[in-house]
Amino acid sequence: MIAAVVPTTTWYLVLAAVLFGIGTLGVMVRRNPLVMFMSIELMLNAVNLSFVALASRLGDINGQVVVFFVLVVAAAEVVVGLGIIVSIMRRRASVTADDLADLRG
Amino acid sequence: MALFVFVCSAAMILVGALGVVTRSNPVHAALSLVLTLFGVAVTFVALQAHFLAAVQVIVYAGAIVVLFLFVIMLLGVDRAENLRIEPLRVQRPLAFVVSTGVAAVVIAAIVRARDSLADPSRGLAPTGADAHDANVREIAREIFSSNTFAFELTSVLLLVAVVGTVLLARRQRSPGAGHPVRP
């Protein structure tokens, strides 16, 4: 009886929404910039998940192509963000986002 | 079987995501992120997106998380952070409210749109022995026909990102000499 239940697209979309909410919480609660970056990755993954679910539901491959481009942009974003974090952390030892007022002119 | 796969991958995704948010040690958070990314890859396989599942494992779990771990260990910030200290007292309950609100609004929209998604005439993508590389073929045809310009632009983006990061993270040789002063 239970084995006959097949997960529908709605289930995947709800899962993606919950994952997005957890990522939002992480960005707002955590103060370590690295962990905030990881939470942004969680949100990106949630969006990717809903893209793939809808692409497979609608039979349209363009959703998966969009996810491919999102992956590329996410990789570039992580590289640049971690470079900025490394260059900031090199001149000050603290690891919380509260102290990062250095970008002021 | 499909239900079993869904439950397992959902458990991986949610446990990993909660681990990222709640673990105080950044290394543990990164490893929880690996768990989440693998769960998403399993979900991609269940949704017949085989190419994206492979890319997810290689790029995210293989490259991005390793980059995170490198930076964590390079900077020596792998000591645990005390999560009980919260300088802004309002921020944490407010963050709970906002994030549950965001998730609740999205879920409400999904539930409202459930009927339009529940059309049984169009199912998931076809499976079977004849379609073992159909996903890769379709994605390749789409990328290299109608999205060629965007694909070329991503190479420019990656090149610019790499050069910019090397410039950003370059160690200055001596104070005053290594850093060029812009006019």
Describe this structure in words.
The complex is a heterodimer of chains A (105) and B (183). Chain A has 3 helices and no strands. By secondary structure, chain A is mainly α. Chain A has a domain of 66 residues. In chain A, helix 1 packs antiparallel against helix 2 and helix 2 runs antiparallel to helix 3. The model of chain A has no long low-confidence stretch (mean pLDDT 85). Among the domains of chain B are: 81 residues, NADH-ubiquinone/plastoquinone oxidoreductase chain 6, subunit NuoJ (Four Helix Bundle (Hemerythrin (Met), subunit A)); 41 residues. Helix content of chain B is 70%, strand content 0%. Chain B is built from 7 helices and no strands. In chain B, helix 1 runs antiparallel to helix 2 and helix 2 packs antiparallel against helix 3. In chain B, 22% of the residues are buried. Chains A and B meet through helix 1, helix 2 and helix 3 of A and helix 1, helix 2, helix 3, helix 4 and helix 6 of B.
The major β-sheet of chain B equals: none
The separation of the N and C termini of chain A measures 65 Å
- Low-confidence segments of chain A, given as residue ranges, are none
Give me the number of helical elements of chain A: 3
| Major sheet of chain A | none
Can you tell me the overall shape of chain B? globular
CATH topology descriptor of the domain at 1-81 in chain B = Four Helix Bundle (Hemerythrin (Met), subunit A)
In DSSP terms (H or I, runs of 4 or more residues), the helix count of chain B works out at 7
Count of beta strands of chain B = 0
Mean pLDDT of chain A: 85
Helices and strands of chain B, in order, run as HHHHHHH
Largest interface: A-B, 72 and 80 residues
Classify the oligomer.
heterodimer
